[in-house]
Amino acid sequence: MRKLSYRQSIKYIYSFSDYETTHKLHDSVSYDLRRVEELMGLLGNPHLKAKSVHIAGTKGKGSVAAMVSSVLTASGYKTGLYISPHLIDIRERFQIGGNMISEAEFTDIIDEIKSAVDAVNRLATYGLLTTFEIMTALCFVFFTRHNVDFRVVEVGLGGRLDATNVITPDICVITPVNLDHTDVLGDTIAKIAAEKAGIIKEGIPVVSAPQPDEAMRIIEDECLVHNSPLIKVGTDIIWQEACFNPEKLQLAIKGRLNDYRLSIPLVGCCQMENAATAVAALEVLIEKGFNISPLTISEGMTKIKWLGRFQVMGKHPLIVIDGAHNVLSARELKKSLLYYYVDYFPRAALQSEAKTILVFGASADKDVKGMIKELAPLFDEIIVTRSRHPRSMEISRLASEFENMGIEVKSAADVAKAIELAKRQALNKALICISGSLFIAGDAIAYLTVD
User: Fold this and answer.
1) For the residues 315-326, what does the mean pLDDT come to?
2) Of 191, 187, 129, whose CA–CA distance to 159 is shortest?
3) Contact yes or no for 313/299 (Cβ under 8 A)
4) pLDDT mean across residues, the chain
5) Contact by Cβ (8 Å): 345, 334
6) Fewest CB within 10 A of the end CB: N or C in the chain?
């Protein structure tokens, strides 16, 4: 059989049903982990071959995954990281030691698993495999090929029926839960929390970030049912900022085992909570006998690479890129903007001469009204646009969402044009914030990096 090229392998993987791209996939009955387990069996059960950290949540799970992975690598463990979605390159999803899978190996693994995928889909005993399920198989084969010590695995959607939930991890982590993907996960925080808590396994320790009361009750109940110890961030582990620095996060964390002073090359108010959550997870691994020290935790935290999260990519004008894509993350973005750059905002500092511009695009399924309410009042001008992603909301519809709330906007056909329009509108002292989705953030980073 002729081998696929890299482009053909990407086309192949996206030829299957893909909720991430279309949001037209599946009622809950259509998700069935038995087909994923069937695929894993045909591939030699690569999901059983290494220690794992499993991370679910509505917000912050990618940041926590990046932190845990970086520390495990600094501690001398060969560590695989599986994340979603990617910002620019599909290979971002599959990393070992901070390095993406190569195009050649990506293609080679698709060639390797293709016959097993076809066999599962030919029988379709438990339904047809999806794009994300095949990507998950790719990640486990990749990690097994390289004999990793640890896998840090971010849930794709929900938790209970997510393809990643075929693993039995050494620790489960649940980051903040809120309303998102309500068409699949449920329309209340309690229902969504139940899906996220579906990753909890018998006797496996659980770390939870601070949660709404209704979410925490669900998590506590699941931990009781499964005899799983629960560590609560904000109660068992606390943090405080050591000093204000708009370039990097410096904070003190009081853990259950040690105290830590950390310097992290990320900013944003939510990253303090994420760092405390990561430390809580790492302390569980220390208790399990893994060779992780306060020194390697500090070292690993300084080396984190995580794009599109309150990322500064220009100073004149100041350009801040953030992948906030739901109401909760938009609220955190607002909090961070007012915390780090209060002098730019006339409504926060009445003497400001700065101009503030929001470049905004969103996915069609999101609570756009809720995000607008959080962000729009901060800005002098708003430019609406769309990413290249198929799920991106049409510009005319997005503009109408703003205009229906009495907010005037300008529009640009794509992110690059929106950035150039914003730059032309900017004064000597201006802040341009680019946000609304991870896909908008990815397009902005790609354009500004080339530019």
Assistant:
1) 92
2) 191
3) no
4) 92
5) no
6) N
Please determine, for residue 29, whether its predicted confidence score (pLDDT) is greater than 50: no
User: In angstroms, rounded to a whole number, what is the distance separating the alpha carbons of residues 44 and 418?
Assistant: 48
Sorted by sequence, the CB contacts under 8 Å of residue 151 that are 6+ apart come out as 50, 51, 52, 53, 79, 80, 81, 82, 139, 140, 143, 167
Angle between helical axes of 131-145 and 33-42 (0-180°, round to 10): 40
**Other CB atoms within 10 Å distance of the CB of residue 88:** 15
For the chain, what percent of residues have pLDDT higher than 70?
93
Question: Degrees (nearest 5) of the Cα angle 242, 249, 437?
Answer: 140
Residue (of 314, 216, 309) closest to 269 by Cα position: 309
- Parallel, antiparallel, or unpaired for β 238-243 and 259-264? unpaired
pTM beyond 0.90, yes or no: yes
Task: Give the domain ranges of the chain.
Answer: 6-302, 311-450
Residue 27 has pLDDT above 50, yes or no: no
Q: Per the structure block, which two tokens stand in for 31?
A: 């998700």
Of 52, 47, 99, 45, nearest to 290 by C-alpha is: 52
Q: Got the DSSP string for 356-411?
A: EEEEE--BTTS-HHHHHHHHGGG-SEEEE---SSTTBPPHHHHHHHHHTTT---EE
> What topology does CATH give the domain 311-450?
Protein-Tyrosine Phosphatase; Chain A (3.90.190)
pLDDT of residue 26: 45
